[in-house]
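[Q] Does anyone have a clean structure-token version of this?
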Amino acid sequence: MAKKFAFNTILKKIEKITKSPEDNNAKLLQISQLLKDRVPYYNWVGFYITDNEKKELYLGPYVGEPTEHTRIPFGRGICGQAVATKKTFVIQDISKQTNYLACSVKVKSEIVVPVFNDKIVIAEIDIDSHEISPFTIEDRKFLEKVAEIIKDLF
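[A] Here you go.
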């Protein structure tokens, strides 16, 4: 119950950020920071934006350690699979994945949530954790609500 209450509080803050007069990249960076600060096992939080012409994702605003993965082809890695299948991916232990793009040796798990405009994936929320199996169904539902709230920022 406590997690759900915290997620509801965070959702309200995200809605407020989306209505601020700042530019969209600044809003996305604030949302990344809010998620990282408020959820202890969200160690890297960022957005990948789709380039449907090139069939790849490019790195948008994020908070966490730098990543070399600034462009990801559709289908490659967890982020690429999520855009290709239009599905949320919850990977509780990345060591068991064959199509994983390692960002840091500290990363143990990942959740990737597509952001839709109609039925087109326009971006993704990507979160890495330094813990194995931290993500629950509540995380998934919460982040899918975040994706719905922020879709107009892309």
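[Q] Thanks! Anything notable?
[A] The CA atoms of residues 78 and 111 lie 8 Å apart.
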